[in-house]
């Protein structure tokens, strides 16, 4: 889907706005054969890399994508707790994981992914002030969002969680999971519909929720939040 010209144009136009480098690590099943040739052992890994190369090629050199093989780089896979491939990690300037994708940034998920890249690349973040004002009240947090690629409401929740994570200076981590490609995760969390959001393994939040609800869940309060 992302190889179609409309998607290429969206990516190209948006990534022109990057002001500083953005770093992505992608863990795949790339395997080096005895003759030195390389092959990926999963079809999804190749699809993911093809999609991400479109982003990279249209970023004026500011999007830095590193493909790491779980076969050739087991120490990195262990360091980042990689349990499956492909896994996409968006990192901050210190090499710290901020956002994890067990999903492809295509279709409706293109926009929240691009907005995350833009925020990491020096662009504005809608929620920066709200997060920074409340950061002392937020515990170290992982927000997991279960999605499907056909869900019309999922991108809004993903966008808010990703931008919260970027604004938190490492205190919040966002994990985006396509449960169609990772059905075992959906079954583990008993996800009966999407979006399905889990904060620090607490009781899930079902359905579409706005950023103000998400932030209240993070700080455990009903105060009025100013953006």
Walkthrough of the structure:
- This protein is of the alpha/beta class and 227 residues long.
- The chain has eight helices and ten strands.
- Strands 4-1-5-6-8-7-9-10 form an eight-stranded mixed sheet. The protein has a two-stranded antiparallel ribbon with strand order 2-3.
- It is 35% helix and 22% strand.
- It has helices at 5-15, 43-57, 74-79, 110-120, 128-134, 154-167, 183-188, 211-219, and strands at residues 22-28, 30-32, 38-40, 63-69, 87-91, 97-102, 141-147, 172-178, 196-199, 205-206.
- It has a single domain (5-215), classed as Glutaredoxin.
- Strand 2 and strand 3 (38-40) form a beta hairpin.
Keywords:
227 residues, alpha/beta, eight-stranded mixed β-sheet, two-stranded antiparallel sheet, 22% strand, globular, disordered C terminus
Strand order of the largest sheet: 4-1-5-6-8-7-9-10
| Oligomeric grouping of the chains | single chain
Total beta-strand segments: 10
Helix run count:
8
Q: Judging by the overall fold, what is the CATH architecture?
A: 3-Layer(aba) Sandwich
What is the count of structural domains? 1
Binned strand content = 15-25%
Q: State the name of the first-level CATH class.
A: Alpha Beta
The low-pLDDT segments are 222-227
Shape: globular
Secondary-structure element sequence? HEEEHEHEEHHEHEHEEH
Largest sheet: 8 strands, mixed
Tell me the distance between the termini: 34 Å
Content-based structural category: alpha/beta
Which range best describes the helical content: under 10%, 10-25%, 25-40%, 40-55%, 55-70% or over 70%? 25-40%
**How much is the radius of gyration in Å?**
17 Å
**Which topology does CATH recognise?**
Glutaredoxin
Task: Report the mean per-residue pLDDT as an integer.
Answer: 91
